[in-house]
Design goal:
This protein has about 525 residues and is an alpha/beta fold. The chain has 16 helices and 14 strands.
């Protein structure tokens, strides 16, 4: 087992000891004699201490030395967090002060320091929480995204945990229907007993299919979403990185291979936090350090939530992109349009590059990011500066939503050839290209919201068990019509029931418990 169940009273700081705070909370749990084991620390008769009521007292060590002025709250078991008697001490939050108070209780011999997650482990042992709820608490405490925060709450006391228990109840209903077919078929009637069995199978099929869809969403990238910028050297990755941060965090240089390892910063988009990553330029190199940086870049690309490939429009044929040719990018941005001479077709470019969901043209060489979404032929642009369609004097590739040769570009109408879609989707007036970070941000948040609204299940153990249940049940429901032996059906249902019980934590292997509780802090 993860803990030796010695039932010895434990103590820990629930608010952590990493830095000084105004108030720190020390938790004592597992004592049976409030008056005898704790009373001496307060020089006060605690027999009349009111339950769940904050009380101001002085705290002393076992030798009677004054330690602090504190507020104590008593939670009498079994009506407490973990089912044991708990006393919470709110003290001044200097870490030295909190450690001294904890040591006073430990040195008395009546308490020992709690292990990681031991308070919650005792809650599980005393059936105050299920294993799924414990995992929800783990997700809640360690969440690095609002998605994980919400999932933790749903598991702890919400809709997701209810879905799990509903699934278990449906398997119990199926088990009962099978038992009726075995023991009471003559009393109920063959037709009625078969109807009950079919209804139970159909009910589970609908429920487990819904959970399987949620478990199949790539939730891993949502837990700590990365936005990864990649491309060949000098494609504009560092320029775009700095534009997002609005500062010169990444070095911009004409020298290839300036970024030899990835650089990352956390940014806020909407109400969400993302990690923006500027990777080493993708190319063949004999430099050992740069080669390692490129290897790391490829790994980051594979696991990224949002993938952006930047391509220098003047060097499309120079790089082969072999290692990422099969990668689907969320956005592909053609850069250095101010230096582009000639005429290219987007379909031709696509054949030589990795695939992307959206294609954009931009100039980031001057640090002035302007962006236009493109879906048709690409013609030459201006000779310098950022892209400003209203200043273009000539197009070599036909209409682009405007028939003027110069001056502000006015869309002809809402239909007909456009050649390129603009970022702001205006139907009238001069077309102003969206700032590069604005348009990309809109797309990132749109993707994040869409995936989040699909109710993804991100806890790996749950995903594995749900997929296992789905696979076994799909096989069972396909074969049930061919199974004449009801005893075999009963055996298959029992296996599925146990897997569902494992999902909600009624039964669980010890190694699962060890993995979960080692993630907890000492005071939880």
């Amino acid at each position: 087992m993860i803990y030796q169940t010695d039932d010895q009273p434990i103590v820990a700081c629930s608010t952590g000891l990493s830095e000084n705070t105004a108030i720190g909370v020390i938790r004592l749990s597992g004592f049976t004699d409030l008056v005898g084991s704790i009373g001496p620390f307060f020089k006060k008769d605690l027999s009349k201490l009111e339950i769940r009521k904050a009380t101001f007292v002085n705290l002393y060590d076992i030798d009677g030395n004054f330690l602090d002025e504190v507020v104590i709250t008593y939670f009498k078991g079994p009506n407490s967090y973990n089912g044991e008697n708990i006393l919470e001490i709110a003290a001044h939050g200097n870490t030295l002060n909190l450690k001294r108070i904890m040591n006073a209780f430990i040195n008395s011999g009546n308490f020992r320091l709690a292990k990681n997650g031991e308070f919650t482990y005792r809650a599980l042992k005393n059936k105050k929480l299920s294993l799924a709820q414990v995992e929800g608490l783990d997700a809640l405490l360690n969440a690095s995204s609002s998605l994980m925060l919400d999932e933790g709450l749903k598991l702890l006391n919400g809709s997701l945990y209810q879905k799990y228990t509903d699934l278990y109840d449906k398997f119990l209903k199926l088990k009962a229907a099978v038992e009726i077919n075995i023991d009471f078929a003559e009393d109920v009637g063959e037709e009625q007993s078969q109807k009950l069995l079919d209804e139970a199978v159909s009910d589970i099929s609908t429920h487990i299919s819904s959970l399987h869809r949620s478990a199949s969403v790539n939730a891993k990238s949502l837990m700590s979403p990365d936005i990864v910028l990649c491309g060949e050297p000098n494609a504009g990755k560092s320029s775009l990185f700095n534009l997002f941060l609005d500062e010169s965090r990444s070095i911009v240089s004409d020298i290839a291979g300036t970024t030899r390892d990835y650089i990352s910063e956390y940014i806020s988009l909407g109400n969400e936090t993302f990690k923006l990553v500027d990777t080493a330029g993708l190319r063949n190199t004999t430099d050992v350090i740069e080669e390692e940086g490129i290897k790391r870049s490829r790994n980051l690309i594979d696991n990224a939530f949002y993938k952006i490939l930047l391509v220098n429009i003047n060097e499309v044929e120079k790089y082969q992109y072999h290692d990422i040719k099969e990668t689907l990018f969320d956005a592909l941005i053609f850069t250095h349009f101010d230096e582009f001479e000639g005429e290219l077709n987007l379909d031709t470019l696509k054949s030589n590059l990795p695939k992307a969901i959206k294609y954009y043209s931009a100039d980031t060489s001057k640090g002035e990011g302007r962006l236009i979404e493109i879906s048709g032929p690409i013609g030459p642009k201006t000779t310098s500066g950022s892209i400003e369609p209203k200043e273009l004097e000539e197009f070599n590739i036909g209409p682009m939503g405007a028939n003027q040769k110069n001056g502000p570009i006015e869309p002809q109408d809402n239909t007909g050839p456009t050649g390129a879609k603009v970022g702001n989707n205006q139907k009238t007036g001069p077309i102003e290209p969206a700032h590069i970070t604005d348009l990309i941000t809109q797309d990132i948040l749109s993707k994040y919201t869409k995936l989040r609204n699909s109710d993804p299940i991100s806890i790996e153990r749950h995903r594995i068990v749900i997929n296992d249940i789905y696979s076994k049940f799909s096989e069972f429901s396909s074969n049930i019509k061919y199974l004449d032996d009801i005893a075999i059906i009963s055996s298959e249902v029992s296996i599925l029931e146990k897997k569902t019980a494992e999902l909600i934590g009624i039964i669980s292997p010890d190694d699962t418990l060890t993995h979960i509780f080692t993630n907890f802090c000492i005071g939880k």
